[in-house]
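W.,

You were right to be curious about this one. When I first looked at the sequence I had no strong expectations either way, so I just let the prediction run and decided to look at it fresh. Below is the sequence, 55 residues in total, followed by the output.
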Amino acid sequence: MGLGSDFDGIGGKLELSDSSKMPLLADALRKEGFTEDEVEAIFFRNAQRIFENNL
């Protein structure tokens, strides 16, 4: 599992209007009690592990 975004073709008012706003999501996760290790896992470590184990 990895976190990704696809903002092409999405309409409406979004809190994350483009990928430059992803740090807002990380900050919100931390504010809700996620540890730094958990945030890193959500954003890239899980996907990195899959790539390293399968490529």
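Here's what jumped out at me. The CA atoms of residues 3 and 41 lie 9 Å apart. And, maybe more interesting for your project: The radius of gyration is 13 Å.

Coffee later to discuss?

I.
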